[in-house]
Specification:
heterotrimer; A mainly alpha (479); B alpha/beta (534); C alpha/beta (395); A: 479 residues; mainly alpha; 3-stranded antiparallel sheet; 13 helices; globular; B: alpha/beta; 2-enoyl-CoA Hydratase, Chain A, domain 1; 2 domains; EC 1.14.13.208 (chain A); oxidoreductase (chain A); Ferritin-like_SF (chain A)
Amino acid sequence: MELIDYDTQIPNNVALASDDRLKRALEQWHPGYLNWWNQMGPNGFSESEVYLRTATGVDPKGWAQFQYVKMPEYRWGIFLAPGDPERKIGFGEHAGEPVWQEVPGEYRAMLRRLLVVQGDTEPASVEQQRHLGATAPSLYDLRNLFQVNVEEGRHLWAMVYLLQRYFGRDGREEAEALLTRRSGDEDRPRMLGAFNEQTPDWLSFFMFTFFTDRDGKYQLEALAQSGFDPLARTTRFMLTEEAHHMFVGESGIGRVIEATTSAMVQAKIDDPFAVDRIRSLGVIDLPTLQRYLNFHFSVSLDLFGAEASSNAANAFAAGLKGRFNEHKIDDDHQLASATYPVLRLEGANIVTRDEPALTVLNARLRDDYANDCANGVKRWNRILEKAGIDYRLTLPHVGFHRQVGEFQMCPVDPEGVVHQATSFEDLVATYLPTQADREFVASLMQPVYERGSYATWIAAPKVAIDNKPGDFEFVRLHG
Amino acid sequence: MIDFRTHPDRYHHWTLKVNERVAELILNVDEHETIGTGYQLKMNSYDLGVDIELADAIERLRLTYPEVTTVLVRSAKDRVFCAGANIGMLAGATHQHKVNFCKFTNETRLFMEDAPANFVAIVEGTAAGGGYELALSCDIIVLVDDGSATVSLPEVALLAVLPGTGGLTRLTDKRKIRRDRADYFCTLEEGIRGQRALDWNLVDHVIPRSRLGSLLESLVPEASSSAPTPNGINLNELNREVSADAIEYPHVRVKLDRELGVARITILGPTAVPSSAEALHGQEDASWLIATARELNDLICHLRFNEPTLGTLELMTRGDLATAQHYSQSLEAWRDHWIVREGLDLWRRTLARLDLTSRSLIATIATDSCFAGPLAELIWCADRSFFLDNAMTGMVVNPMNLDAFPMMNGLSRLASRFLGEPERLGELPAQFGVELDAATADHLGLVTFTPDEFDWDDEVRLALSARNGFSPDALTAMEANLRFVGPETMATRIFGRLSAWQNWVFNRPNAVGPEGALRRYGTGQMANFQRERI
Amino acid sequence: MTTSGLLRQHLIDPEVCIRCNTCEETCPIGAITHNDDNYVVDPSICASCGDCLGPCPTGAIDSWRVVSTPYSIDNQFVWEVLPDNEDELLAEPGTDDVEALELLAVAHQSAPRAVAPKSASTPRINVATRRDPIVATVAGNYRITAPGTESDVHHIVLDLGSEALPVLEGQSIGVLPPPRPNAERSPAIRLYSVCSPRDGERPGHNNLALTVKRVFDNGLGQPGLASNYLCDLARGDTVRLVGPFGDTFLMPMDPAANLIMVCTGTGSAPFRAMTEFHRRHLPSGPGKLWLFFGARTRAELPYFGPLMKLDRSLIEIELCLSREDGVPARHVQDGIRDRLEELRTLLDQDNTYLYLCGVKGMERSVRAVLNDGIVDWEIKESTLLVEGRLHVETY
């Protein structure tokens, strides 16, 4: 095996060079990681030079270094956001105490579970997206895909670092297991449902990065509040990278909408439901977009778990996982007697019930998330508005097409109406992408690898990354 | 009122599927279908209602589906086998309910082990606490390793209680896991998975899902060509009438004396003897052997949960002693027939349940008594017995009393009774089949007191009313100690040691106090323990 | 960044922004906030430190408008698109040219809070505007790297005739390349550091000199428009100039000041100007001039000959050659590392000024060495910036 100079190969700010125990653990893990990347990372393109952003430091200047890199040679680093020696635990029963620099014994298991669940999602999305390179609509999008992939890989490193540094032998075992599970695998699936779904086409990819990666943002932000300081600092830094993933999703769908609307305007088609005519222009019709949106939003909601959760309550009370933007919330950060309004299904009615806030933290985080999604949809609608197309995208009701929680398998339509006479399967089928939709989208998935060219169904970006113009050679395909 | 009568057609939580020799017991708990209020049965967690169905299924597997040799116990829920007893239920239940719930679930687990079929637990996902204990009660545990499936006993770490459904005991006594490893395992909230679970013998097989099918095939034994396949009998719903102060089954009559806190139970003896084992089989669930045991079993469960203040059960029989004895003799002769074997086993389990019932048991043998065969066991189940000395006979000892109904300590009730006078056992074969009167029974040491007609009423009434004056707790504890003499078995360790400690823990503030772990679980608030060791 | 009452305001493009909160999270002084619709920069707080620029995933953060009155956050909260530049502001002589400001902002990105040395002369800004550029005549155009090397750097002397274009050492001027035929818009201006001192390439002749490197590939596979235009100019050709620009990257008017100048390639231009000023006007000042100059080979080093002829009592030169045959490869940062001890001693003096000019990669490497070698470099750096003693212009 080739010896690796870890101090230079792994950009880090965790004093890796002087931490023998950690170095040994990483040395043992690293070959397995590379092996995983080669097996499950992007299919092909390992020789291509990709214009990637590499984090080399945690200060604002240090983590956006752009250069051409072959993906297997990407320098996956380990970074913690700068620490604050005065930082205090911000919520729960230990509020006001200094943050922990080592794992508190009584919370070891809970913390490890949080890390493992979070860590498991990172490589999963790389696995889900590994075939997309073959149908990229442009070099720019190809680059964005690979950026997302290498950064999810880095997020895996981040979680593995915490497991190996703070959780001894168990942590090392968990770190190994993160490499052995596989998205969608019958025997060793990833832990959460949405991460075992396929990402078969680029529309799904953009939806995934908009909706599912946004779940990541909310989970990471809640963990960035943690009283366990290394976790807080790790996830805080991850958040800055996660933002790029959502940018890929939001701008990706935005560009799809632009391509569709400008084609419709050009062909003088007013009716957004003239699906066949619109499709014949080589663009994706808006109702199909809506159905993709319905699917990805609803499966992403499942990632927040059941509305009421004792695990979430425990993690909050323990000071391990806070609420979104906990530090900006103006309350006692204890939730001893606070309530929170939760949607409940009572017979055929969806009603709001005030419940002990501590027990329904998942519902709250989900609501914050849904609001964020709604704002993104609003911005997409501006494109439609500007183009004068009489169609608006909407988020379905949170009860629609749910496999987890209060509305699990309940026939709730996107408007929030409960249909007692219809089965769950029949109802959701009306609003989710049909086989024909998927086949049509698949038919558009032809690679466009010429510099500055974009597939018909997606517009060129308004601003490309790193101040580069849209016709920059974002990927040198053949080295 | 909690009703223990159910049927696979009415199950909410389990599905019993039988395909020739292989049965599947599939757990898919309906979270809204609860016995109590204020909790939901998430993640395949269970309350008494779930276990009532399991107990029913196990009985039906023996009597209705005797051809089944392998029972696969599995979950229909994704990534969770079973999360154990529901914590919200435990936190909210009365102490009385918790203790009896645990007792019933423990009996069910033991009856699974007692069944002739091979039980295979297929653990896909999480088997936590009572979920793993359910798997531990199976003969074989298969862990379908998807990289996250675990087995765990997190009670100590998470809830400040014990894995009280035999978990601790089965680790050490059944699976012979080293106590230091068991100690480690029982303090791990998140449990153990994969290869280490196998290395430590926490499970028997660790395999990927894609190989589950072929493994299961190999676990189902080949059909034996020599043994004819028995035909099972249907178990119809028990008829019973419950009124304010009486409960009536076809073969069991109960009068409830609430003033004295006594349930006066009279079991009617058989009125006729079937001509052959096949004829008995032909009576299906209406045969005296089967029907009476089922009724008595249902009654015991009913009294435990629905009549907690009736502290004493008076056990009586009524019928023709000669017919009862003839019936018993026939059973002795037909013990090779599967329905007789199963019938006697059903009696054995029912009597064992009676042994474990925390009520004072007083047997009274008077005019028209017919304590023969299985019924005679009731005398030795009792904490005390009274035989009216009026020259009438009322009981018969049979060989089956020495070997067909062992208690949970592995000894027959007679052997337990004469632990200090083993020579007494030697005197018994000479009396087999003989109708005994009070004096003879007293002489043989088979009864406690033999008052004559003048003293009878006073003596019996005094005994019952005195019982009613003592502390119910002290009586429960005293009786449980005196009933189980001699050797320890896994079962006695579960009921005598594990359950007793668990019931103690269930009363301690560290578990159930306002700041205890059980009470605070799920609220997000951490438990606040009293640090004093007791 | 204000001159003549105008402000260059930092804004966020609401059409591009995805509301990811990264900027708000990153801003060290809480200048960024948001409502349900927009993320906005509070002009009363923002110090233009640039910390938010790199982390922004979209580029929305990198939006600027020159305004007379800054847009309030309440203004910005309701925007759906950015307002247009206030065009009429651009014409006024003596005010900033927006395009030039943007270009300089990028060059000064990593030291955006720099201020001019206290003793620096007051710079004039945008004397020649784009509406009214100065037409200069080419007095000379010489290749100053050896023939046959990959690097084609030209020294171009421009005669300003009778026009006034007062330039200080370190300032840039803008070149307006001729419009392409049929093009809708005239090409963007390009900024070049002037390599001659304030009194011109040759005193009394009202001229100035530029150092221009020919760009063969601008990242799009095309030759650079302006550099090729300039390098191809012949004596007697005319060229339109605007500017000057830049009001911080200036030299102290203090004979005792120490100037540490770090550069690669054409980054040497301002240092040539500063050195020449010293040679002409402060030859015996006690201050030390110290130049760290990186190039691949001697032959590719602009001004190699003239540089070597300078009197060593005027300036100490540390050449760092990365591809010179027979010499171990050495980059600028290696030169710095070798002399770190002296550098540190010098920087501890209040009258030492540090200048970095050249490619961004050089800047990164040099910063890394300083960070490793100088205790509390980050603190030191902000002190230097505040005192006008650290200047960075990289591209």
